[in-house]
Specification:
This protein is mainly β. It is built from three helices and 19 strands. A hairpin with a 4-residue loop joins β1 and β2. It starts with a strand and ends with a helix.
Length: 256
């Protein structure tokens, strides 16, 4: 069921159903029997069933409402006045579908995350690491979050990159040129500088406020991108710090 509304003027209950979901989850006859049973419970109030598919809300800016969610758009912790960037889609075997953001955007597990700013709750923080060696959090999709695209949005260059690969530690090599796509400064480019003893990586690109959580990636000639990690901190102008994918995956127990 996509939508249910009680219309007090017409004195009826409107049920909007995605026909494809009905066929995937049950049979037409079984669904009809369910509606018949509900009608018995509703008594004299008529139930009107309409069929239609929900419409995605396309992102127009990094600040706007986006459905499905995707890497590169603005998110905010409920109660915060700042905001940061959604990193990328993720799945956790315990909590299911969600996304990864910078750990310092959160204060504690069970914090609520909104998208867009001022919009509804999109997720709940379930796993959080924030210390000098770790800065990332897993947010479980809840409430209005029904889907997360496995993509990175880079509107300044007119691209949406499907994530082809999430690179292992062996691919994190000094001198590799990468991009980042963040709310604060858009798309910037730079090369990997130093791999730190704790696994974090410095990269020669600029970030500003709002870029925390921005995906770090390598565009490919076929229009896809390889995901390398997520920005967490500005060190100096044109030098920043990011958490590599393999480290985030291990600590947050992600399946992808």
């Amino acid at each position: 069921v996509t939508f249910v509304q009680a219309d007090f003027k017409l004195q009826e209950i409107l049920v909007v159903v995605d026909p494809e979901q009905v066929l995937q989850l049950t049979s037409p006859s079984s669904f009809t029997n369910t509606i018949t049973d509900v009608q018995v419970l509703a008594g004299d109030i008529p139930i009107k069933v309409e069929y239609g598919k929900p419409t995605d809300v396309a992102c127009t800016t990094r600040e706007s409402d986006c459905d499905p969610l995707k890497g590169g758009i603005r998110i905010i912790r409920d109660g915060s006045t700042g905001g940061s960037t959604l990193g990328f889609k993720a799945n956790n075997p315990t909590y299911g579908l969600g996304f990864v953001i910078a750990g310092h955007e959160t204060l504690a597990v069970e914090n609520k995350i909104r998208q867009p700013v001022g919009g509804p709750i999109s997720g709940t923080v379930k796993l959080r690491f924030y210390n000098t060696a770790q800065d990332y959090a897993f947010v479980k999709c809840t409430d209005t979050c029904t889907a997360v695209d496995n993509t990175i949005w880079a509107p300044e260059v007119g691209s949406t990159y499907p994530i082809a690969n999430r690179v292992p530690s062996s691919a994190q090599v000094s001198g590799t040129f990468l991009s980042k796509s963040g709310v604060g400064s858009g798309v910037t480019l730079g090369d990997i500088s130093v791999i730190q003893p704790d696994g974090q990586i410095t990269i020669k690109l600029n970030v500003v406020g709002g870029d925390s959580g921005a995906p770090v990636y390598k565009p490919l000639v076929n229009g896809n991108a390889d995901l390398y990690g997520m920005v967490i901190q500005r060190i100096t102008e044109n030098l920043s710090l990011y958490e590599p994918w393999h480290k985030i995956k291990s600590d947050l127990a992600l399946t992808n």
